[in-house]
Amino acid sequence: MASMVASLLPPHQGLLPNWLLLVSIVSVANSAQAYATLTYTARVYSGTTSPSSKNSSLKPSPTTPNLTTVSPVTPLSARTFGTWTLLSSIIRLYAAYNIDDPVVYQLALWTYAVAGFHFFSEWLYFGTARWGAGLAGPVFVSTGSLAWMLSQWGWYVR
């Protein structure tokens, strides 16, 4: 049994390929749940919005009075997020098994860079995400993986 599991793991040294595989598997599950329910996506996007505001350009602020916490997640936005996550997981899966290919490595790097930019901008600029357990996981995975991949470029890509 152990040899069968070992044969499925990426054939490269180091932990990074196995991390990319793990993140890919978890991301596929995350994509499926984004299609099935709004619950988990709403935990990430639980920003503060004003129910009475008619101005969609208003950027709510946690310091603005009379605002209530409402998730801006809709069924369409959850499915779009699930589709983006699935595409990212496929790229990261390819990177896990082809980590010595500079193009595949760069594509995987970009998935983390774009994800990090997205999560930080939703939190700090648009206000659709609040810091908490729902946002912390994606932020730590995207920024940590990006930093790890940048630091290991020369080890895997020659």
From TrEMBL:
Gene Ontology MF term list: protein-macromolecule adaptor activity
Cellular component per GO, a single term: endoplasmic reticulum membrane
Superkingdom: Eukaryota
Tagged with keyword Transcription regulation: no
The entry's keywords: Endoplasmic reticulum, Lipid biosynthesis, Lipid metabolism, Membrane, Signal, Steroid biosynthesis, Steroid metabolism, Sterol biosynthesis, Sterol metabolism, Transmembrane, Transmembrane helix
Signal peptide: 1-34
Pfam families for the chain: Erg28 (PF03694)
Membrane topology label: Multi-pass membrane protein
TM regions (residue ranges): 107-125, 131-150
InterPro entries reported for this sequence: Erg28
Region span, Disordered: 48-67
Localization: Endoplasmic reticulum membrane
Similarity field: Belongs to the ERG28 family.
UniProt name for this protein: Ergosterol biosynthesis protein
Naturally occurring in which organism (per UniProt): Coniosporium apollinis (strain CBS 100218)
